[in-house]
Amino acid sequence: MTKKEVLNRIRQAKAGHKRWVSYAKALHMGIGVDKYAVPVIETDCQFGKWYYGDAQVFSKLPSYQSIEDPHAMLHNKYMEIYKLREQPLKKGLFTSEKKAKQKREEEISMLMDQLIQISNMLMESLAHFEEDVENMSEDEVLKLTT
User: What is the 3-state secondary structure (H, E, C) of 69-119?
Assistant: First the structure.
């Protein structure tokens, strides 16, 4: 694979991640999105398939390694949101359904803010990885990808 092809795949993975985040935001806002468009498990999303697949040839690069933790954290945070969204409302003796919904939405909003922060960390790590690949020679890239 040429250096240009690798850089193109990195950019496609970044675009896939951005799309995943936009779907997660849409679901949070109550917009109808197929929940399968926002996989909970990190190896099931388009980005994860690339990262744990073809991109592993770069696994010795520290910038590649720095991607894994924020990506896993992102999916873990989304799992929290998903579970909270799907569980029945916790109404207490003195808590109305309206208050219970409001409390859940506040919790989900806080988790979504955290998810966005993690996404930004992931994008920063991806930018460093992309920069490292850009700084590699064509021969270095070919050696790793063939």
Answer: HHHHHHHHHHHHHHHHHHCCCCCCCCCCHHHHHHHHHHHHHHHHHHHHHHH
Write down the pTM of the prediction.
0.88
**Spatial separation of the C-alpha atoms in residues 141 and 139, rounded to whole Å:** 5
pLDDT tens, position by position, 88-107? 877 676 778 888 888 888 99
Instruction: Tell me if 70 sits within 8 A of 125, measured CB to CB.
Output: yes
Q: Identify whether 144 is part of a domain.
A: no
Domain count, the chain: 1
Could you tell me the CA-to-CA distances from 100 to 4, 62, 84, 139 in Å, in that order?
Answer: 52, 45, 12, 59
